[in-house]
Design goal:
This protein is α+β, with helices and mostly antiparallel strands. The chain folds into two domains: about 1-195, putative glycoside hydrolase family protein from bacillus halodurans (Beta-galactosidase, Chain A, domain 5, Distorted Sandwich); about 225-605, Glycosyltransferase (Alpha/alpha barrel). The chain has a 15-stranded antiparallel β-sheet that branches. Strands 26-27-28 form a three-stranded antiparallel β-sheet. α5 (about 275-285) runs antiparallel to α6, α5 (about 275-285) packs parallel to α7 (about 355-365) and α5 packs parallel to α15 (about 580-595). The longest helix has 21 residues, at about 370-390. It is globular and about 75 Å long. The relative contact order is 0.10.
């Protein structure tokens, strides 16, 4: 009986993580597979419930596929130059067809547009649409009249507008049509309140032109002109796509629960704004000339952490919301049976000391602002630093958000030093009202303690936490933030120790999960951001050829449209973890600046 029940279960639907590409409107985003299936879309915002959740389950959990009805002999795809508009071209025995997918800049409502264009011959096409609200749990009531389909459940409504024929089939909507050379068939899907009137469809050709213009105008502001320009531009576009335009907040990724190891339990929801990740993002955006985003983020920060500095969180919602409850979507089987599927993130309640450093560094480097903005930002920084002086000696959960006991993580203490160092320089420059003399005393105290307790002489390396013998790739950032100069022998020792211990198949692990008690079961892949940090460190200590070789191996891990997830599994040669991952693309950009001679650590600046 159990075996018969097992056979009745619908098969999992998702493609390989690296087989997806990203489209978005800077308020939410979707993942489109090489097979033409949109398997993940949270509407109307990044952190809303998904109406397409087949990425974490089966077709029954929502998807939207448009593809040739018959055999496909070849598939290729690419983003239109300088944009987030993707073309997927299918070759068949009968002809060639191209599907253009994009999300136009929204006014009141968000839309997703798909334009099917015949290139050669005559190709029979099929569209399958299964709308499922609430992460695949709720089947909507669907009606269709005059080329307009409406799917309604509670307050949610999604409307499909097309001239293609539509019919219902097994709780989905199907369209069979044929496209010939130079013909186009268009589909526009829009989300809105079920109480609202359906707006007229924006002509897809006009929406495409507006979307391309928006992205090309934005990419033209990029000031990077080094040898890795294409990779940098694609990563910058990806980071912009992770920005929530109305507030200036930046999400870590658009997905939840893509596993760090296939079948494992290390599955987290990244659709929120980490102070650390957003600070890192702003640093690279500013370096590339994007000052508007920096100013918008500073306003988001002022709103998000307003109030008592002791209530600062590591994670906020896209508007700066503080309450992010973690729960499990038990009805979803998970990506390739990787469970649990988590919604929300309990790390919101953790104490992560390093975020004070990342925020202080970013505040000190954001562009010159009008007095009305600079003064409250400087005051905010002083308030945070005064609080830091009273808590820096406490253990924390650290950059990796461990779920075991709190420890005195070396990187956390280093970033506490960074917070004080940058705040001192900032307040000296602007004659702020901070207690700079006290800050200097605490800064020097932290530096001395880290060098005494965070460095293991036997290993000749900085270690994960005070008194530990475990190595941690976060220590690669010690030279990057200017805590010690790259020429210091302790920096070279740390780089070489991590090379010996944490390199796996040519790439860097965060730490050894087999010997480190992080409160979690199962293993993970190599961590791509750490591998890019290694590139930067190799460059800083004079091993430029090794740095270039590793960087180019890392670039080869990108998928066909230049995107990277959080981690990589060298054994299966698969990307793993949430996708696309902001921290990975941030580290990719930063390493390119180092290799191009366009960046040096703070302490090394003349």
């Amino acid at each position: 009986m159990a075996e018969r029940e097992k056979k009745k279960k619908a098969p999992l639907h998702a493609a390989a993580i690296e087989d997806y590409c990203l489209i978005g409107d800077c308020e939410t985003a979707a993942l489109v597979s090489r097979e033409g299936s949109i398997d993940w879309l949270c509407w109307p915002t990044f952190s809303s419930g998904a109406c397409f959740a087949a990425l974490l389950g089966t077709r029954e959990h929502g998807f939207w596929k448009i593809a040739p009805a018959g055999r496909v002999t070849a598939t290729r795809r690419q983003y239109k130059p300088h944009t987030l508009v993707v073309d997927t071209t299918f070759e068949t025995p009968d002809g060639v067809v191209c599907i253009t997918d994009f999300m136009p800049p929204r006014d009141e409502n968000s839309s997703l547009v798909r334009i099917v264009r015949g290139i050669r011959g005559e190709v029979a096409m099929r569209m399958n649409l299964a709308i499922r609200f609430d992460y695949g749990r709720t089947i909507p009531w669907v009606t269709s009249t005059n080329g307009e389909l409406r799917a309604v459940a509670g307050r949610d409504m999604v409307v499909l507008q097309t001239k293609a024929p539509l019919r219902g089939e097994k709780m989905t909507t199907v369209s069979d049509f044929t496209v010939r050379a130079h013909e186009t068939v268009t589909f526009t899907l829009t989300t809105l309140s079920s109480l609202s009137d359906v707006p007229p469809e924006v002509p897809p050709a006009r929406a495409l032109a507006e979307t391309q213009r928006l992205w090309t105008d934005w990419t033209q502001r990029n000031t990077y002109n080094g040898p890795y320009k294409e990779a940098i531009e694609r990563s910058l576009i990806t980071l912009k796509a992770l920005t929530y335009r109305p507030s200036g907040g930046i999400v870590a990724a658009i997905t939840t629960s893509l596993p760090e190891k296939i079948g494992g339990p290390r599955n987290w929801d990244y659709r929120y704004c980490w102070l650390r990740d957003t600070a890192f993002t702003l640093m690279v955006l500013m370096r590339a000339g994007y000052e508007e985003e920096a100013i918008a983020w500073r306003m988001w920060l002022l709103r998000a952490i307003a109030g008592a500095p002791g209530q600062v969180q590591t994670i906020y919602g896209i508007w700066g919301e503080r309450q992010i409850i973690e729960w499990e979507a038990s009805w979803l089987p998970g990506y390739k049976h990787s469970r649990p599927v988590r919604i929300g993130n309990a790390a919101v309640d953790q104490f992560q000391l390093d975020v004070f450093g990342e925020v202080a560094e970013t505040l000190s480097e954001t562009p010159e602002a009008e007095e009305g903005l600079r003064v409250p930002a400087t005051s905010l920084q002083a308030s945070l630093i005064n609080h830091l002086c009273s808590v820096w000696q406490k253990p924390d959960e650290g950059i990796w958000e461990t779920r075991g006991r709190r420890q005195h993580f070396t990187y956390s203490k280093v970033m506490a030093w960074v917070a004080l160092d940058r705040a001192i320089k900032h307040h000296e420059r602007y004659d702020g009202n901070g207690n700079v003399a006290h800050w200097r005393k605490v800064r020097d105290q932290i530096h001395k303690q880290v060098c005494e307790k965070g460095f293991n002489k036997k290993l000749n390396s900085f270690v994960q936490s005070y008194g530990s013998k475990q190595l941690d790739a976060s220590c690669l950032r010690i030279a990057m933030v200017g805590f010690l100069p790259p020429a210091d022998p302790r920096i070279r020792g740390t780089v070489e120790a991590i090379e010996r211990t944490l390199i796996k198949n040519g790439f860097v692990q965060r730490y050894d999960t087999r010997t480190t008690d992080d409160g979690l079961a199962g293993g993970e892949g190599v961590f791509l951001a750490c591998s890019f940090w290694m590139v930067t460190n190799l460059c800083l200590i004079g091993r430029r050829d090794d740095a270039i070789a590793l960087y180019e191996r890392l670039l080869d891990l990108r998928n066909d449209v230049g995107l990277l997830a959080e981690e990589y599994d060298p054994a299966s040669k698969r990307q793993v973890g949430n996708f696309p991952q902001a921290l990975t693309h941030i580290a990719l950009i930063h390493a390119a600046y180092a290799l191009s001679g366009l960046w040096v650590p703070e302490q090394s600046k003349k």
